[in-house]
Write a structure and sequence with these properties.
There is one protein chain. The strands form three sheets. Strands 7-8-6-5-4-3-2-1-9 form a nine-stranded mixed beta sheet, with helices on one face. A three-stranded antiparallel beta sheet has the order 10-11-12, with no helix packed on it. It is globular. The protein is built from 13 helices and 14 strands. Strand 10 and strand 11 form a beta hairpin. By secondary structure, it is α/β, with parallel strands linked by helices. Helix 2 runs parallel beside helix 3.
């Protein structure tokens, strides 16, 4: 699994706290630095057991769709040369913004070998999109989806956001859900809006210009999300992820089952599948200057906690031995945990909204 972080955005969304910069003038420098890093890391997977290597590639960000196609093609060629196991990835995902999608760009990404598109729609309500400081409107999102289909993409994931200030809405959450189901993408991801870091949303809230909805209101929206998508034929396989049969994200599923992955670019993290984690600085200038990676060695307790934190996000759950027996028994008695048909411990779908609280009680 290889993840490439493209840190550039044309503008910042209201809610976003991911590492990104508005600095298009440095895209060429970034591409050169990334090519150097690819060359320096080409031995990363050599120590990993062959059956643990999942040949997926994921271009995330930021906004990868802002990058010139010529630079993206050079990066793809370098990945193929440096990582023979990933030369023909079983899944190659690229995140895109709707306003970057046109017939020419879609055709170029397809020619480049991208097999899966993840597009951040977030809402089909233009008032909400404006409040989120998104660069597209609902008509453009629908048009971008049509263009991607016409370009031959048969594996598209769309993102939606729920759980934000109720005064923002004009059309309602059910309208968003009906709209996304009408498009019938293969995959849907949905995330609750939260106050994170130094985002514009945090600043608005501190000035009394943004009001978070109650937990009960957010939970009601999450339950509607689950119900509508289930009726539309989507299976929930993770807290925030729904897919048509066989269209689960193979790349993201690898994170949750702790397969080895290599992260390239500023702020990207890597894991060797055993104990070693490393990461690049969340600083484009430091990355361009060749700043070294930082790293840590995980101990047994950290590994157990990570297994629970990641595994209990998923419908498959975790092996019972990963959890404290007494804590697990209490949660089983309360119906907050259950055994899956395979014998794993998992969180019942009805309680996934409070999965973080349940996991904390297991830790």
């Amino acid at each position: 699994m290889i993840y490439v972080h493209f840190p550039f955005c044309r503008s910042f969304c209201t809610y976003c706290d991911f590492y990104s910069v508005v600095s298009k003038g440095k895209m060429g420098q970034y591409a050169e630095a990334l090519l150097r890093e690819i060359d320096s890391q080409k031995g990363f997977f050599r120590a990993c057991p062959p059956d643990s290597i999942r040949p997926t590639v994921y271009f995330g960000g930021g906004t990868p769709s802002l990058m010139p196609v010529a630079d993206l093609e050079r990066i793809c060629e370098a990945l193929k040369a440096g990582f023979p196991s990933h030369g023909r990835p079983c899944e190659f995902t690229m995140e895109v913004n709707p306003d970057d999608v046109n017939p020419e760009s879609a055709a170029a990404w397809k020619e480049m070998g991208v097999t899966r598109i993840s597009m951040g729609v977030q809402s089909f309500d233009d008032d909400v999109l404006s409040r989120m400081a998104r660069r597209h409107n609902s008509a453009k999102a629908r048009d971008a989806f049509r263009i991607l289909r016409e370009a031959g993409f048969d594996n598209i994931s769309l993102d939606l956001i729920y759980g934000y200030d109720l005064s923002w809405r004009r059309l309602g959450w059910e309208y968003d859900l009906d709209s996304v189901c009408a498009l019938a993408p293969e995959h849907i991801s949905s995330y609750q809006m939260t106050l994170e870091g130094d985002s514009a949303l945090v600043r608005l809230a501190s000035k009394g210009k943004y009001t978070e909805p109650s937990d009960a209101e957010c939970e009601a929206e999450y339950r509607l999300l689950q119900d509508v998508l289930a009726k539309a034929g989507y299976r929930q396989y993770e807290v925030s992820s729904w897919a048509k049969e066989g269209r689960e994200s193979r790349h993201n599923s690898g994170y949750w089952t702790r397969l080895p992955y290599l992260g390239l670019g500023p702020a990207a993290h890597s894991y060797d599948g055993a104990r070693e984690r490393s990461w690049n600085p969340s600083d484009l200038d430091a990355y361009l200057a060749g700043a070294p990676r930082q790293s840590e060695t995980l101990d047994e307790e950290q590994l157990r906690e990570e297994e629970l934190l990641l595994g209990l996000r998923c419908a498959e759950g975790v092996r019972p031995g990963a959890a404290d027996k007494a804590a697990a028994q209490r949660l089983l008695a309360d119906g907050l945990l259950e055994y899956s048909p395979s014998g794993n411990l998992r969180i019942p779908p009805a309680h996934l909204f409070i999965s973080e609280w349940i996991i904390e009680n297991l830790l």
